[in-house]
Design a protein that fits this description.
rod-shaped; mainly alpha; 88 residues; 2 helices
Length: 88
């Protein structure tokens, strides 16, 4: 879960920084989302695309970690309930 959070945060920050560079580049990169990867604007667009798998992997690991933590908590709660029930 920690690795997923770290990857997700890294992906979000990197993509945000690259998007800001695309928007503030002089001369402007218009349109921002284009299929051309030539020139300086194209390199920035390519870097944004290359960071998307990092973001996706981070989100997948984060969700997987949260699911596993939820299962563990439910399992512990069920074990406590089983111990507290009176035996006949």
């Amino acid at each position: 879960m920690i690795a997923g959070a770290a990857l997700a945060i890294t992906g979000v920050l990197s993509i945000t920084a690259l998007a800001v560079q695309l928007l503030w580049y002089d001369p402007p990169c218009r349109p921002v989302a284009a299929s051309s990867f030539t020139g300086p604007c194209g390199v920035l667009r390519l870097l944004v695309l290359l960071m998307l798998p990092i973001l996706a992997a981070g989100l997948v690991l984060l969700v997987r970690g949260l699911v596993l933590v939820g299962r563990e908590r439910r399992s512990v709660a069920e074990q406590r309930e089983a111990r507290q029930q009176p035996r006949r």
